[in-house]
Amino acid sequence: MLSTDEIKKLTEYQVEVFKDVFATKDDIAKLDGKLNALQTSVDSLSKDTRKNEQEQLVSNKRIKGLEDWVDKAAPKLDLEFKH
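Predicted structure:
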């Protein structure tokens, strides 16, 4: 059976050993702040990507409309249009 002093020493030793293994409240708070900043960045990038995709769709539709118009106008002007 271990004595009270031995148990105390063992406990203190375990606390020292596990300080490097387990995160402290401060470690978690710092990590939480970094994760929040990362999430904000990802959200911003996602928003920008959606906006760019929408703008690309609008641009493609406008270009398609212009190509269709040129396809109709080119023969009337006796021109060849390749796209």
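Summary: Residues 13 and 46 are 48 Å apart (CA to CA).
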